[in-house]
Each structure stands twice: as C-alpha cells, then as structure tokens.
C-alpha cells in the first residue's frame, strides 16, 4: 500500500465518495432554488443580459476558485489569489501598453508572473515552514503594494491593444449561434476547470495534491519530496490566477491596481460550498464550479432586488461561516 492509499480504508473511501456526491447534489439543488427564487422575485432576473452578466462574473471568480481549490485540497489556504489576479493584470498592462509588445506576450507574462508569485508563496510555506495563512497574507499585502507602485496608482488601459477586450467579452459561440452569446470568458473558465480536473484525477501532481492534504507526514516518510510537490501546486495555482488577471483586465479593458481585495473570500466560499474540505484531502473542480455559480447568482440576485451593497457583504460573510460549519459537521459525521 502506498503512502497515498495509507490510512484510507475501502469503507472510509466509500463514505468520502458518497459524502462528496451528496455535497455536490446539495449545492446544485441550492443553485436551482436561488434561480427559481430570484426569478419569482424579479422579472428582470432571467433576462438574457442579466444571465450573461452572471456568467461574466462567474468566469473570473470561477477561475480564482479553481486556483484556490488546488491549494485547499493540500490542506493549505491562499489569501493572495485576489491581489495576485490584480498584479497579473498590471503586468499584462505593462507589457502590452507601456512596452507595446504583442498580445500573446502580455498573456504569457501575466501567467508567468502568477506562477512565479505562487512559487514564492509555496517556498514560504514548504521551505520556510511559515503557516499558509500568514505566508499568503503577507504575499497579499506585497502584491497589493507592488500593483500600486508599478502602475503609479493609476489604471492601465488597453485601448491600443486590438482584440484584448474580446478575450473575455467576445463570443465565439455567439458568432456561430446568435441565440447563445456565451462570453469567451466562460469558455476559458471551462477550459481551465477541465485542465485542473484532469490534473487532479489523472496525474502524479494531482495524486500528491490529495495525499498532502490527507496525510502529509506519511507521504514524507515514504521518501517523497513533499516540499517540491507543494511548491509546484502553489505555482500552478498562481498561474491560474494569471488567467483570471487576463480575464478581468479584458472585461474592464483596463488593469485596475486597487482592485482585488475581497475576491479571495468569494473564491474560498465557492470552494467550500462545492464540497472541498478546508482540512484538505477532499474536493472536486465540479463542486467548485457549482459553488462559484451560487456566489455569482446570489450576488447578482441581491443586486437586482436593490439590496444595499453593505448587506450583500453581510450575506457573503454569513455564507462563508455556514459553509465552514457544514464542512466541520461532515467531518464529525465521518469520524
């Protein structure tokens, strides 16, 4: 029996699988209830333009949630995903607007910057043994400051980069099927989610991702270089945040250096709502996508009903607390 399998008996594995499926079904049912409830409360909710707005919001938050899922499955946490997204958007702005380089170079630079920052966070956690909460909190503040310094505290616009806004707001599907103008950002979200799901389910990196969250000490004692794998996972998560940075910059057609704080909360909430355990070792990308849709529908629905912004924040905080409590209750039942 390998380190990855140790400590997980067939009965326990069956309970975990059943619990994960139950959580995804519960999350999906909650999404349906929200859709029906807001549709009945306001006739404006189900309009095509509003559905497109929900999908646009989900594309950014969903990509960030996928990045957060990888780290949380290892038993860690990343509070820097929001400001890292902004930093990557600023880097794209520097490359495309200030330096005048071609569009592909800006995309590559943003993703590379995200991977490097994730590598740094992973090094702080794995090599320097700084708790993930503190390491990524420090990285969040560093990236927030760097975004403001590099941009000169001013937005960077992409007006001189043809086609940049089409990355997120264009619609390849709509060009073929005019009745379904699904934004390209949503397609990118599903490509990122599909790639992450494949990595988790089909690669060595994915297996060690779950193993680190289940029993890191057992994996280490079996001779595996756990530090290397942990750093790789943080770097992968960072590169996905780079994709989110490109998406939000394309959606706004600008890099807003003061943007980013608060996105990490919605991303973590989406991950937990989708059934990923904050203690690590369990989670799915499909569940995270459902959780991201729930957060986007809830935020949009409250806005359509003209609920004040401060109360929307209160609701988001309450959902995070309830999601964490539900995760703790599941662990107690499985113990």
Walk me through this protein's architecture.
- By secondary structure, the protein is mostly helical.
- It has a single domain, classed as ABC transporter involved in vitamin B12 uptake, BtuC.
- The protein has helices at residues 10-41, 48-73, 81-98, 103-126, 132-151, 166-169, 172-176, 184-202, 204-221, 226-252, 263-273, 285-304, 309-334; strands spanning 156-157, 254-255.
- It has a two-stranded antiparallel sheet with strand order 1-2.
- The model is unreliable at 1-17 (pLDDT under 50).
Query: What is the ordering of alpha helices and beta strands?
Result: HHHHHEHHHHHEHHH
Question: Roughly how many Å is the radius of gyration?
Answer: 20 Å
- Overall geometry: globular
Strand order of the largest sheet: 1-2
Unreliable parts: 1-17
Top CATH class: Mainly Alpha
| Whole-number total of structural domains | 1
Task: State which percent range the strand residues make up.
Answer: under 5%
Class per helix and strand makeup = mainly alpha
CATH architecture: Orthogonal Bundle
> What is the percent of helical residues?
over 70%
Largest sheet: 2 strands, antiparallel
Mean pLDDT: 88
Q: How many DSSP-defined strands?
A: 2
Q: Give the termini distance in whole angstroms.
A: 22 Å
Helix count, per DSSP? 13
CATH topology: ABC transporter involved in vitamin B12 uptake, BtuC
């Amino acid at each position: 029996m390998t380190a990855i399998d140790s400590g997980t008996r067939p009965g326990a594995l069956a309970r975990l699988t059943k619990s994960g499926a139950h959580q995804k079904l519960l999350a999906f049912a909650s999404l349906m209830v929200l859709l029906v409830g807001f549709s009945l409360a306001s006739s404006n909710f189900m309009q095509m333009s509003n559905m497109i707005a929900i999908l646009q919001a989900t594309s950014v938050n969903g990509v960030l949630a996928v990045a957060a899922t990888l780290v949380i499955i290892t038993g860690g946490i990343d509070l820097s995903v929001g400001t890292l997204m902004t930093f990557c958007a600023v880097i794209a702005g520097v490359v495309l607007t200030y330096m005048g380089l071609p569009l592909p170079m800006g995309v590559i630079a943003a993703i590379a910057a995200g991977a490097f920052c994730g590598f740094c966070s992973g090094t702080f956690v794995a090599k320097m043994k700084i708790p993930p909460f503190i390491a990524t909190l420090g990285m969040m503040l560093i990236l927030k400051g760097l975004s403001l310094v590099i941009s000169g505290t001013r937005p960077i616009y992409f007006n001189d980069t043809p086609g940049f806004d089409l990355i997120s707001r264009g619609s390849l599907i709509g060009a073929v099927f005019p009745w379904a103008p699904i934004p390209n950002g949503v397609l990118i979200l599903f490509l990122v989610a599909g790639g992450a799901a494949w990595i988790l389910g089909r690669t060595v990196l994915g297996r060690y991702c779950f193993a680190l969250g289940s029993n890191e000490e057992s994996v280490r004692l079996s001779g595996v270089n756990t530090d290397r794998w942990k750093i790789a996972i943080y770097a992968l998560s960072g590169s996905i945040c780079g994709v989110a940075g490109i998406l939000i910059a394309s959606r706004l057609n600008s890099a807003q250096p003061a943007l980013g704080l608060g996105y990490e909360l919605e991303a973590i909430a989406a991950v937990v709502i989708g059934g990923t355990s904050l203690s690590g070792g369990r989670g799915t990308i499909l569940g995270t996508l459902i959780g991201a849709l729930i957060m986007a529908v809830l935020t949009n629905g409250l806005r359509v009903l003209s609920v004040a912004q401060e109360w929307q924040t209160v609701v988001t905080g309450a959902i995070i607390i309830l999601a964490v409590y539900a995760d703790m209750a599941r662990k107690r039942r499985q113990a």
